Amino acid sequence: MFMTNAEFTASYLKARGLAFRPYSAAIDEELSPEYPLCFYEFTCGAKFYALAPGLEDAIGPVLQERPASYDSLLRFAFAPGVRAEKESVLGYYLRGPSRTGQRKLVRLHSGHLPAVAALRRAVSPREWALGGVDLRDPFCYGLFEGGLLVCAAGAEIFGGLAEVSVLTHPAFRGRQLAKHAVFELCGLVCQAGLVPLYRCESENQASIRTALSLDLAPAFRMTGGRLSYR
Predict the structure, then answer these.
(1) Contact by Cβ (8 Å): 137, 155
(2) Four-way CATH pick for 106-214: 3.30.160.100, 3.40.50.150, 3.40.50.2300, 3.40.630.30
């Protein structure tokens, strides 16, 4: 079944316990005083403000003010002079069911710990933080070549969505392994009755190309940042 941008937005907000509205705000337990705000702008036009614990009293005023950007949200929520080291993440979703392809993923388990550790050593800490897999996740798969884990893909479930991540060994990049892994994983996620969500940094052109090559639909842009008082 084909899913529109508005339907995906409603599913995303529902996963966060919110009804679909043009403007929504909620506390995000993963945020912190150092990284207190995230501004989501959905393709359908809806906006979502995520605030760190401790900012509960700001939800009402923020919804009344309706800041149009992360910068305006930051200026509204904090005193003048507060800056943020901004970063943006793009979200893509699968419009309809996906079928598995020709190359089969291997389900990763505790016996693959050495292979996973080797992949982790081969990438930077930031790359692992953004795309690394967790063997405890319900979806955790890999592609192997000669016993080496060359690409790992996983998905963490929240609500009816499954957030997909993928990471390729540096020596094997440029061979479309991430594309194969994401395609296969999206098929498994769909078979489980979930909607795949693929995130990537707005500056990561390789990940953006992977999303577009799989005909994933743009869902949102999330902007956040670590505060700086200099």
Answers:
(1) yes
(2) 3.40.630.30
The one-letter amino acid at 200 = C
| Beta carbons of 38 and 223 less than 8 angstroms apart | yes
| R_g of the chain computed on alpha carbons | 19
Give per-residue pLDDT as tens, 83-133: 999 999 999 998 776 665 556 789 999 999 999 999 999 999 989 988 899
- Alpha-carbon gap, residue 37 to 46, rounded angstroms: 17
What is residue 228's predicted lDDT score, i.e. its pLDDT? 82
How far, in Å, are 89, 112, 114, 122, 164 from residue 119 at the CA level?
24, 11, 9, 5, 18
Q: Rounded to whole angstroms, how far apart are CA atoms 225 and 174?
A: 30
Domain boundaries, the chain: 5-91+223-228, 106-214
Q: Tell me the average pLDDT across 49-70.
A: 96
pLDDT at 7 over 90: yes
